[in-house]
Write a structure and sequence with these properties.
heterotrimer, A alpha+beta, B mainly alpha, C mainly beta, A: alpha+beta, Alpha-Beta Plaits, four-stranded mixed β-sheet, 10 strands, 28% helix, globular, B: mainly alpha, Formate dehydrogenase/DMSO reductase fold
Chain lengths: 269, 304, 244
């Protein structure tokens, strides 16, 4: 059984070239939106806006400027996090979403029926429907390439090695070294998703960030959808019990003398 | 900003809203029918039979709506059986969509049987096969089938609220009260549907009056749970500033709860109150779904 | 003893150049090596002559022939500029090329022309290639940068009432084009020679055919060129920007 594999993305060396976006589309033969005819988003150099069924890599551009020429431009290639505890996998009612032998999370396109529960379950908003197939699709961490010993298309294309592919253990070691190196230079560097005792058991696609997660569009405390199951079910049961009792009291057969007393009025509240 | 604002909208829209509405009515009608069946008098039979019929039609309609909504409708059965290992069952007890699919199937089965039993009782089945099935569902068996249909009905009315909570979407996953709210609404709309439909089956004034009294209490519970729901949202309540907040306030609370309550207390005609309750139930599903559907991270950061 | 190789940290055998870079010359040539008497090519160079692209193996600061200007670079203003050259009386390079001078299709702005008060640069994006004739037909590239835009600072946007994504008209003495505004702090006001000059910029990848179309930015540039290789002065000239 191969060991867990995934991505470590060092956003400090990302140059925003979007080679990862295009390499991913080329390998997976994803269509361009509206045939490639689009409108300027106005959001810096980001015209992709979000991960969806036909965008499995999305480069974010965050301009942080106090005044002209005074500031920095953060860039980050967003992708499915391949969570160790995956919310999408949890709710999928067809069993289409599985964990592979590489500890990655994959949607089996021939099983998915497009119910879209996974889209709502993902804490990172990574999944969406591919209009061509009608099913939910997302990054597969190039499962087909991994099976034949190749690295994913995006990490292969990345010219600065911002996206690094490898075994999670090795990547975590590398990432911690890089964080130490940056901190020694006075950069506020933190890893997001590299802690196996942290949120979701760790992310098999984790990041090095130099600002708060929200700045990069990442939730600070991503959680599994099932956290709400018990409470929601309990309150529902309580509500059902109250209404059941009210129905019982209201509709049960009246005794003869009640009925003879002027034909049961509209009732008191 | 709540972590739920970083997730993506699942595009659950009109088919799902209609399903929640129809399923709520079917579930509520089914429970009321079962209670009247088990604990009511012979004058309540029209209400019982109407209730099971509403439940059965609602269940079938629900199944149709859900199937049409799928991206690949012909694969609906993948939620019931493993597509690669048919006929191995596909079931996840921790996923509302999974146990809901099975729940709806069973509810459909039992409500149709109960309805057939009721129609056989009235002598309204002409098709020999249906008459045979309906005829078999009588006496103690009919009560059992009806009882199960009633219990499953409550489940159907409420599990959809749990389904919304077991996500990472704003509003839905920010409160534990949606399931409770949908059950209350299912009961009030179920009663309203019976008030409108049972007269043509011969329901007595007394039966209708009792349904109306129950509806009043259900509306009060619904209002209470709605308040608890909103209170539990905390700062997320800012999502209501806008069109959907208006729908919630004017449509759901005003037209759907307060107006029918007032009508009931003034002993006004039952039918208009019932129609308002149905409108309110529909608007509740509409507002809770669409208010969340409109929120996605990039839209929030772009100030949309 | 040689210090260890900084890249591999392994001890280095004597007689070999090490380091992060890969040297152009023979890696075993000692610094005190002498050129071979009948040597051909690299053998004619000593150990202190590593610039193998020059005949004498030495680094040159300037060339004595082949260029029309030099020997050392200095500062000249572009042909169109909002300011006088702050260093010299000579405003522009005395040997820069001007084609079709005085012709109506190559009108040139005088220094500090108030009709064209902003400095404009043109540059490239990663997603498109050159004039975009190929890249604007490729769906995966066209969707990454779907429209021509002009980047301008918040100060200029405020002054001219331009909001992000508004259509604007960009004009120069040669003509005018339309583009959407991308308002950003990455470009903006500069203080030069005591004046407050707005700097704007445009990628020049657009034309009228393809999945992604837009006006041609080179309609704004002038027929003024580099003294030696004639590249036209597209990186710095003057313009005006108005809300459309």
């Amino acid at each position: 059984m191969p060991e867990p594999m995934g991505f470590f993305t060092d956003t400090t060396v990302c140059i925003g070239c979007k080679a990862c976006e295009v390499a991913c589309k080329e390998w997976n033969q994803l269509p361009a939106e509206n045939g490639g005819v689009g409108e300027l988003s106005g959001d810096s150099y980001d015209n992709t806006r979000k991960l969806d069924g036909i965008h499995w890599r999305h480069v974010r551009f965050i301009e942080q400027f106090k005044a002209p020429y005074d500031g920095r431009w953060l860039m980050m290639s967003d992708v499915c996090k391949h969570c160790v505890q995956a919310g999408c996998l949890e709710v999928c009612p067809t069993g289409a979403i599985i964990r592979t032998d590489f500890d990655t999370v994959v949607i089996q396109s021939d099983v998915c029926n497009g119910c879209r529960a996974c889209i709502a379950a993902c804490p990172f908003g990574v999944i969406d429907v591919n209009p061509v197939s009608g099913t939910a699709q997302k990054c597969t961490l190039c499962y087909d390439r991994l099976k034949v010993g190749l690295e994913p298309a995006c990490s292969k294309a990345c010219p600065t090695d911002s996206i690094q592919f490898g075994s999670i253990a090795e990547l975590r070691t590398r990432a911690h070294k890089r964080v130490d190196q940056l901190k020694a230079q006075g950069v506020k560097a933190e890893l997001y998703g590299a802690d196996p005792d942290g949120a979701l058991g760790g992310l098999n696609s984790f990041y090095l960030l130099i600002d708060e997660p929200e700045v990069y569009g990442l939730p600070r405390h991503p959680q599994l959808p099932s956290r709400n199951l018990t409470k929601s079910a309990t309150f529902s049961a309580a509500s059902a019990a109250v209404l059941g009792v009210l129905a019982l009291v209201g509709l049960r057969k009246r005794r003869m003398d009640e009925q003879s007393r002027g034909g049961g009025g509209a009732g008191n509240v | 900003m709540s972590d739920t604002f970083f997730s993506a909208a699942p595009h659950w829209a009109w088919f799902i809203i209609l399903y929640f509405f129809v399923g709520g009515i079917a579930g509520g009608a089914s429970l009321l029918a079962a209670v009247a069946d088990w604990f009511g008098g012979p004058e309540d039979r029209p209400v019982v039979r109407t209730g099971y019929n509403v439940a059965a039609v609602g269940a079938i309609l629900s199944g149709a709506l859900l199937t049409i909504d799928l991206g690949r409708p012909l694969r609906f059965w993948h939620m019931l059986f493993q597509s690669a290992n048919f006929p191995t069952i596909m079931f996840k007890g921790w996923s509302p969509i999974s146990f809901g699919a099975w729940g709806l199937l069973l509810f459909g089965l039992f409500s149709v049987l109960a309805a057939l039993g009721g129609m056989a009782e009235e002598g309204r089945l002409s098709n020999p096969a249906l008459r045979a099935v309906g005829g078999a569902v009588r006496g103690g068996l009919a009560k059992l089938v009806g009882g199960v249909a009633g219990l499953l009905g409550v489940f159907i009315a409420g599990y959809t609220g749990i389904l919304l909570a077991v996500t990472n979407r704003p509003v839905w996953a920010d409160s534990p009260w949606l399931g409770a709210l949908f059950i209350a609404s299912g009961m009030s709309t179920g009663a309203a549907a019976l008030i409108l439909l049972a007269p043509r089956r011969g329901a007595t004034e007394q039966s209708l009056a009792r349904l109306s009294a129950f509806d009043t209490r259900a509306l009060v519970v619904e209002l209470l749970v709605l308040v608890l729901f909103l209170a539990s949202l905390g700062s997320v309540n800012r999502v209501w500033v806008g069109f959907w907040g208006l729908v919630l306030l004017v449509g759901v609370v005003g037209l759907g709860i307060l107006a029918p309550l007032r009508l009931h207390m003034q002993r006004r005609p039952l039918a208009s109150a019932a129609k308002l309750v149905l409108l309110g139930g529909f608007l509740l599903r509409l507002a809770t779904i669409f208010v969340s559907e409109g929120i996605e991270h990039y839209r929030v950061t772009a100030g949309m | 003893m040689n210090p260890p190789d900084p890249k591999t940290k392994k001890p280095v055998p004597k007689g070999k150049w090490v380091g992060y870079d890969v040297p152009d010359f023979a890696v075993t040539k000692a610094p005190d090596a002498q050129p071979k008497p009948d040597g051909i090519g690299l053998d004619a160079l000593s150990g202190t002559q590593p610039f193998i692209m020059r005949a004498d193996g030495r680094g040159w600061l300037f060339v004595p022939a082949g260029l029309v200007d030099g020997p050392l670079p200095t500062h000249y203003e572009p042909h169109e500029s909002p300011i006088q050259n702050p260093l010299y009386k000579q405003q522009t390079s005395p040997v820069h090329k001007v084609w079709a001078p005085g012709k109506p299709y190559n009108k040139l702005a005088a220094v500090g022309d108030p009709k064209f008060p902003y400095v404009i640069s043109t540059y490239r994006l990663t997603e498109h290639y050159l004039a975009g004739a190929m890249s604007r037909w490729l769906p995966w590239l066209a969707e990454l940068q779907p429209e021509l835009f002009i980047e301008l600072g918040h100060d200029l946007a405020k002054e001219k009432g331009i909001k992000n994504l508004d259509w604007v008209v960009v004009s120069s003495p040669r003509g005018h084009i339309r583009a959407k505004a991308l308002v950003t702090h990455r470009i903006g006001v500069m203080h030069i020679a005591g004046k407050r000059i707005h700097h704007v910029g445009m990628p020049w990848h657009w034309g009228w055919m393809g999945l992604s179309t837009g006006d041609v930015v080179n309609d704004l540039t002038s027929w003024v060129g580099d003294p030696n290789v004639s590249i036209h002065e597209g990186k710095a000239f003057v313009c005006n920007v108005e809300k459309a």
